């Protein structure tokens, strides 16, 4: 399968995009879907939120 190259976006273009779930992040002109926290990271995140 051939994959089309991703379009490079400016930061201004990225900021105009609607929010998504899971969230996306902007890295060097590319939009990448952030992975969902799993395992130990998820446990630590839950403890951190309850502490705050």
Q: Give the % helix.
A: 25-40%
User: Largest beta sheet: what is the strand line-up?
Assistant: 1-2
Give the tally of β-strands.
2
Terminal-residue CA separation: 47 Å
Give the domain tally: 1
Taking the sheet with the most strands, its summary is: 2 strands, antiparallel
In sequence order, what are the helices and strands, one letter per element? HEEH
| Oligomer status | single chain
If you compute it from the alpha carbons, what radius of gyration comes out, rounded to the nearest whole angstrom?
15 Å
- Note the total helix count: 2
Task: Describe the overall structure.
The protein is an alpha+beta fold and 52 residues long. The protein has one domain. Helix content is 37%, strand content 15%. A hairpin with a 2-residue loop joins β1 (24-27) and β2. The protein is elongated, with a radius of gyration of 15 Å. The relative contact order is 0.15.
Could you give a quick summary of the protein structure above?
The protein has 52 residues and is an alpha+beta fold.
């Amino acid at each position: 399968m051939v994959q089309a190259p991703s379009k490079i976006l400016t930061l201004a273009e990225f900021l105009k995009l609607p929010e998504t779930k899971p969230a996306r992040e902007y890295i060097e002109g590319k939009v990448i879907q952030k992975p969902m926290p799993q395992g130990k990271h998820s446990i630590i995140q839950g403890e951190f939120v309850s502490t705050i």
